[in-house]
Amino acid sequence: MSFAANTFSQCFINGDWQASESNQTFSVINPADLQPLTKVPDCTAADAESAILAAHQALNDWQQQPAKSRANLLRQWYNLILEHQDALAELMTLECGKPIAESRGEVQYAASFIEWFAEEAKRVRGDTIPAPSKDRRIQVIKQPVGVCTAITPWNFPLAMITRKCAPALAAGCTIVIKPAEGTPLSALALARLAQEAGLPAGIFNVITASQGKEVGEVLSTHPLVRKLSFTGSTAVGKQLLAQAAGTVKRTSMELGGNAPFLVFDDADIDKAVAGAMASKYRNTGQTCVCANRFLVQAGVAEAFAKALAEATRGLKVGPGLEPDTAQGPLINQAGFDKVQALVNDAVDKGATVLTGGGPHALGGLYYQPTVLTDVTGDMRLVNEEIFGPVSPIMVFKDEAEGIALANDTPFGLAAYFYTESLSRSIRVAEGLEYGMVGVNEGILSTETAPFGGIKESGLGREGSHLGIDEYLETKYLCIGGLSE
């Protein structure tokens, strides 16, 4: 089976590989060298409608399948992903630019959701509740929501799909996926493996589009769709929520973040720097949970900044397929320009550049890993998601001020802090207004734990035993007339 980029030139609807109804295509660009990899269908509202109808027609048979049968098919899909993990990783690096080691890790991470929810499919349980009279029985059962749609981002082009589709399929739902326009190839490769695994036609569909607004409107408003899941910016999430409200759809929203990374005076600085490097510079800083603001207590601020800058200078920047690359290119010109504008704004307002601070000598979309000090709250990068390899450091005086600064944002996805005090770790963890908190840990994500945010960072949870509940309806059965 070939996973060369130029082998993916059709979308996947109802078990068939096909062009868009308009026969239009768009190019997928390699951010490492800005060269086109291939062309894929530029789907329209009509294609979205076709995919939704296919998912609807396949729904009844799929939800009637025994849970064990669904689990076995998902398990076969999982096995095929691992069998082809090197080819999938290379394809991912080509289209999104992340270092090949990170891509290999993401393939395994993506597969883990399929494995986890294959197992959870067999554990969907109801309840029997004591009735108020002897002639009745009260039962509660769980049933699949129905047809689902998912709109996924470019920064984790495999894992963000499997984190949504695996629980949906395990629950007995069918799904239509619209991957990001920058990274459609990983999604199409996943569909090819789903087909080989024997997943029935129509339960997993992938449509590609260069302009997501028209397709997104169909996916969020169509009356046959009962659940929408989205990972992306808060602004787009709010728009999709408004559109989904018209038919009162279930929604899961994993939106923007502004993650604080607090370092207290009693922290182990070496461990804090290692955690900061893992959190901040993964995927060249292009993750929704990476540290966006470093808040460091005054007593260790200088030592932490010096050590972080030294570690940052050691990062190798280059094309993701080179085995020793630690930082790849940014995803596109708009992302590059935003990072540069945020750094320029900070420097203009008084920030000091310890290392980096501008485009890399490689040119193109490569940006220098950067550390800034003397950062203040009026700078844009304190209030906006950077989505790039830039570490701004702010200083706080005491625990109360640190927590207040961390919470001073409308977002609440992920937060991190380092301390050697048990009592402080409990106080701060409970005081931070975030859906996920790393305590002396810079990496949070795992299929076994609930992923999601609060405030304007989203609704619902993905992963863990809670993830499948997002795709299930609870039905109450009151069985009467049981008297003799």
TrEMBL record:
Keyword Oxidoreductase included in the entry's annotation: yes
Residues of the active site: E254
GO molecular function: succinate-semialdehyde dehydrogenase (NAD+) activity
GO biological process, any: gamma-aminobutyric acid catabolic process
Keywords (A to Z) from UniProt: Oxidoreductase
SUPFAM superfamilies: ALDH-like
UniProt xrefs under InterPro entries: Ald_DH/histidinol_DH, Ald_DH_C, Ald_DH_CS_CYS, Ald_DH_CS_GLU, Ald_DH_N, Aldehyde_DH_dom, Aldehyde_DH_Superfamily, Succ_semiAld_DH
Domain of life where this protein originates: Bacteria
Every Aldehyde dehydrogenase domain range: 17-476
NCBIfam families registered for this protein in UniProt: SSADH
Family, per entry: Belongs to the aldehyde dehydrogenase family.
Protein name (Swiss-Prot/TrEMBL): NAD-dependent aldehyde dehydrogenase
Organism of derivation: Reinekea blandensis MED297
